[in-house]
Design brief:
Elements lengths: L3 H17 L5 E5 L12 H21 L3 E6 L1 E6 L14 E2 L8 E6 L3 H4 L4 E8 L2 E8 L6 E8 L2 E4 L13 E9 L16
Parallel strand pairs: 1-2
Antiparallel strand pairs: 2-10, 3-5, 4-5, 6-7, 6-10, 7-8, 8-9
Amino acid sequence: MHDYAEQLAVVKMLPTFLNDHSNVRLIVMDSVAFHFRHGFDDMAKRSRMLSQMSQDLNKMATDYELSIVVVNQVTTKFKFGNSNNNNTKNNDNITNNNNNGGGGAILIPALGESWSHAATNRVELFWNQGIRNAKLVKSPSQKVNTVTYAVTKDGIRRSSKSIVSNVDNGNSGSNSNSTNSNGGGGSTKKRSRGGD
């Protein structure tokens, strides 16, 4: 796809494709954010288009009983000003570099927080000490959890390696959002980092 118009057109054409290919159970859109990150003067129009695309994808997931995974990118937002805490705040993904001016940086979804509400499940993928991690951060039926995984010649597998330190360090590399027609657990097939 070359631009957001083509991306939206593909989403609109998916039901026809799915009618002709009834065995499809997973659709992955990587990246949902790319064509929507820049070049919009009218952010309200961008929000409306993203909202409509989200509604279309959610409806398809329900109507065709399939999972749809959309990958969102993350971007860095810099925090300026004085800070009373020079530590990493894991819950907020804020890292303070312990300089005299305070501040720090936070990883945020490229499409903003409003996009994170579009997905049923949200998974953040990140590296910690050289090991891949997947953190389920939003689900209607599963608790927040982080697991290690490996990409192998046989596919994605749970890793036998474990991390001694806290894996909730906010080193997200991407967000993935998953829409699952059964609202159910385990739609960690991918975001993440989406979704949002």
